Automatic annotation (TrEMBL):
One of its GO terms (molecular function) is uracil DNA N-glycosylase activity. It comes from Polyrhizophydium stewartii. Keywords: DNA damage, DNA repair, Glycosidase, Hydrolase, Mitochondrion, Nucleus. The active site is at 174 (proton acceptor). Residues 1-101 are annotated as: Disordered. Pfam families: UDG. This is Uracil-DNA glycosylase. It is found in: Mitochondrion; Nucleus. Residues 10-27 have a biased composition (Basic and acidic residues). The lineage of its organism: Eukaryota, Fungi, Fungi incertae sedis, Chytridiomycota, Chytridiomycota incertae sedis. The gene is UNG1. NCBIfam families: PRK05254.1-1, PRK05254.1-2, PRK05254.1-4, PRK05254.1-5, ung. SUPFAM superfamilies: Uracil-DNA glycosylase-like. Residues 159-323 form the Uracil-DNA glycosylase-like domain.
């Protein structure tokens, strides 16, 4: 166990991190949401509430399991297998840690055990920073006061999209704040949950853009299958209090998701960033347009889309045309229909 502790805190450059237990199955690694209350062209809280929860939160509980990035080749498999021994032991030996190290280790238990290994490895140092540990303390207090969405095991479901395989980034703002909705991927809801208005408009644009012979709206709102296609569906804020849209917007999550975007911008090439609405466009303003394709439109919520600027944007065909041109495989947007 001492080896596991040393590797977690990595006293020397190049030491391997010890990841947490268990793999999240594809069926359980659902996502989140991320449309409610867009600033500057998106749906506000009132529109979100009318949609059956803030278009951006919620989620029903599922067994806590580790997310696994689909198609990961960025060290995820090695980390996962190296964590197998630790997974077999319910309690880690923390006796060799300083009090500060022990607190950090304990605060990051959820990240170790539910975040995909490639993501945990890439962002372990970021998550050890004071601001992120403050997020974890904040969440503990929030959960003591009432429900928080999505449930713990789904907060990092977006990491099912392997870092090394990202082709498209869709930015949302805030998880759906109604029970049973959010599951860790922006704009997506669990199967059996009514498709939110913003996602209805996304489906309409997909049908118009690609043609109904290629894409026909499914009868559900679960976009999890896109993650396997290399689509990262990331909310700027990863949690929300029940019935309170944007309640965790100032908790520190946006600093973390800024770091995620900066990492993708720096480490990846030829990624399509879909920035819908003023909030997303502001958050993605630092993306290098010489390396990546940045597509902007109004927010697909009824409030934004019905005023023009969403329908006819053709982002999905434009994304595939760019990926083809760069020699990257296209996204099969219709996979959600067959999934």
């Amino acid at each position: 166990m001492t080896r596991t502790i040393k590797s977690f805190f990595k006293p020397k450059e190049g030491a391997e991190p010890a990841d947490g237990p268990k793999k999240r199955s594809a069926a359980e690694a659902d996502g989140e949401a991320g449309e409610g209350g867009d600033n500057g062209g998106g749906a506000g809280p009132a529109a979100a509430t009318a949609a059956g929860g803030s278009e951006g939160a919620g989620g029903s509980g599922a067994p806590s399991k580790r997310a696994k990035s689909v198609g990961d080749t960025d060290g995820g498999e090695e980390d996962e297998s190296s964590a197998a021994g630790a997974a077999a032991t319910a309690e880690e030996d923390t006796s060799a840690m300083t009090p500060q190290q022990r607190e950090t280790y304990e605060l990051l238990e959820l990240e170790r055990t539910t975040m995909a290994p490639d993501w945990f490895k890439a962002f372990k140092s970021e998550m050890s920073k004071p601001y992120f540990l403050a997020i974890k303390r904040f969440l503990a207090k929030e959960k003591a006061a009432g429900p928080v969405f999505p449930p713990d095991e789904d907060i990092y479901s977006f990491t099912r999209c392997a870092l090394s395989k990202i082709k498209v980034v869709i930015l949302g703002q805030d998880p759906y704040h109604g029970a049973g909705q959010a599951h860790g991927m922006c704009f997506s809801v669990r199967r059996g949950v009514r498709v939110p208005p913003s996602l209805v408009n996304i489906y309409k644009e997909l049908e118009s853009d690609l043609g109904r012979d290629v894409f026909k709206a499914p009868g559900h709102g679960c976009l999890e299958a896109w993650a396997a296609q290399g689509v990262l569906m990331l909310n700027a804020t990863l949690t929300v209090a029940s019935g309170k849209p944007n309640s965790h917007a100032n908790s520190g999550w946006q600093t973390f998701t800024d770091a995620v975007i900066a990492h993708i911008n720096r480490a990846r090439g030829s990624v399509v960033f879909m920035l819908w609405g003023g909030f997303a466009q502001k958050k993605g303003k630092a993306v290098d347009k010489k390396k990546h394709l940045v597509l902007t439109a109004t927010h697909p919520s009824p409030l934004g889309a019905n005023n023009g600027g969403w329908f006819g944007c053709k982002h999905f065909s434009k994304a595939n045309a760019f990926l083809r041109e760069r020699g990257v495989g296209e996204v099969d947007w219709a996979v959600v229909r067959r999934d």
